Design the sequence.
């Protein structure tokens, strides 16, 4: 999907080179999959006078740390937490790739309507790679997919919920990454409970309070 989206700036960061912004668990980092995060912004956001402040919220090292913490959760819970999608077969064997696109409400509304038939801008949309196992097996890196974020909605929701933008954004990123891995809270209560429990555990490692309390 990213090829169809207008982007102006693409920022990349490797998991290997990132400096964690929050304490990680005791599992050696060498056991956590390596990977890359690519961040792009809509041109209309780049033209804003306060774009520098907006961009600072999407620093590569912060998002890399969030992705690494999600992956580490499954590394340390392999006996109790199973990744639903076919990505689980390769997640600990390959470099992991994630794309993030940050946009504004008009485009976010159009994307949401095109993807889900819902005529409003939502906070985050997840587009899993959905490549067949035969293709994933051949690829040198594992594409998780793309997250599309509407920054204005994130800011508005954070204010409504009495959270900082960074706290809410961190939660949404974890939530979106789990969707890319095949989790879906809309399938039923059990699936919702499982997904929320993982989010709470990962967010705790990132020093973010339980968002469901």
Sequence:
């Amino acid at each position: 999907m990213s090829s169809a989206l207008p982007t102006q700036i693409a920022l990349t960061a490797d998991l290997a080179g990132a400096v964690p912004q929050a304490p990680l668990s005791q599992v050696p980092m060498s056991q956590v999959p390596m990977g890359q995060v690519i961040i792009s912004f809509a041109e209309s956001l780049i033209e804003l006078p306060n774009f520098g402040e907006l961009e600072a919220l999407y620093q590569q090292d912060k998002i890399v740390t969030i992705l690494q913490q999600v992956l580490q959760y499954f590394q340390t819970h392999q006996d109790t937490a199973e990744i639903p999608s076919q990505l689980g077969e390769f997640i600990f064997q390959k470099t992991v790739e994630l794309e993030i696109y940050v946009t504004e409400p008009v485009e976010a509304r159009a994307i949401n309507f095109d993807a889900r038939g819902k005529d409003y801008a939502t906070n985050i949309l997840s587009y899993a790679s959905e490549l067949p196992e035969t293709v994933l097996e051949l690829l040198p890196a594992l594409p998780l997919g793309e997250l599309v974020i509407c920054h204005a909605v994130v800011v508005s929701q954070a204010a409504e919920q009495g959270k900082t933008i960074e706290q809410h954004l961190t939660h949404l990123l974890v939530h979106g990454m789990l969707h890319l891995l095949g989790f879906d809270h809309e399938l039923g209560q059990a699936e919702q409970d499982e997904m929320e429990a993982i989010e709470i555990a990962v967010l705790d490692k990132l020093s973010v309070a339980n968002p469901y309390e």
Summary: Helices lie at 43-46, 51-56, 60-76, 105-116, 133-138, 151-161, 165-180, 189-205. Residues 60-76 form the longest helix (17 residues).
